[in-house]
Specification:
Blueprint (H helix, E strand, L loop, with lengths): L3 H11 L1 H15 L21 H11 L1 H18 L3 H12 L4 H8 L3 H19 L8 H14 L1
Helix pairs in contact: 1-5, 2-4, 4-7, 5-6, 6-7
Length: 153
C-alpha cells in the first residue's frame, strides 16, 4: 500500500477496521480490572462507586485509539454511501478484493485511468475530514494516554 490512507481503506473494506473496534472494546471491558489488590487484610473501600456499564462507557470514551478508529469508520461510511454504485464497485474490488487496476477496470467496464481517478476523488474527499486521525500516536503519547486512563479507572 502506498500510504496510510490506502492502508485505512484496505482495513475498512476487508472488515479489519470494524474488527479492531470490536476487539478494543472487548479489551477495555474485560482487561481493565487487572490491577493487584493492595489492601491486603483490610476491609472494603467506603463510598466506592461501582457501576460496570458506566465505567466501561467512560473507558471507551477516554480511549483515543478507539475513538480515532470509530471516527475513521464513520467518515468513510458517510462518504462511501453517497458515491455512485460504479465507484463503490471500484473501491470494493480494489481494496476489499485486492484486485489489480486492470482487473478492476474489466469488472466495472470502464477505463483503468477512470478507476484510478474515481479512487483519487474518493481519497481526496475523505482525506480532508480524517486529518489528524491518520497520524500515528507517538510512543510517549500512547504511554501518557494509557497512564491517564489507568488513573481515571
Amino acid at each position: 500500500m502506498a500510504d496510510r490512507l490506502d492502508k485505512l481503506l484496505s482495513d475498512y473494506f476487508t472488515g479489519r477496521l470494524a474488527t479492531n473496534i470490536r476487539l478494543r472494546k472487548m479489551e477495555l471491558q474485560f482487561n481493565s480490572d487487572r490491577t493487584p489488590d493492595e489492601n491486603i487484610g483490610g476491609g472494603r473501600k467506603q463510598n466506592d462507586y461501582n457501576n460496570p456499564v458506566e465505567l466501561r462507557m467512560i473507558r471507551e470514551q477516554r480511549d483515543t485509539q478507539l475513538q480515532q478508529w470509530i471516527l475513521q469508520k464513520d467518515i468513510i461510511d458517510m462518504i462511501y454511501n453517497i458515491t455512485i454504485e460504479s465507484q463503490q464497485c471500484v473501491l470494493k474490488a480494489r481494496y476489499g478484493n485486492q484486485l489489480s487496476w486492470v482487473k478492476v477496470a474489466e469488472e466495472v467496464h470502464v477505463d483503468e485511468r477512470t478507476c484510478i481517478r474515481w479512487r483519487d476523488d474518493f481519497k481526496s474527499g475523505i482525506a480532508g475530514h480524517l486529518g489528524e486521525t491518520l497520524k500515528p500516536l507517538s510512543i510517549s503519547r500512547q504511554l501518557s494516554v494509557m497512564n491517564r486512563a489507568e488513573k481515571m479507572a
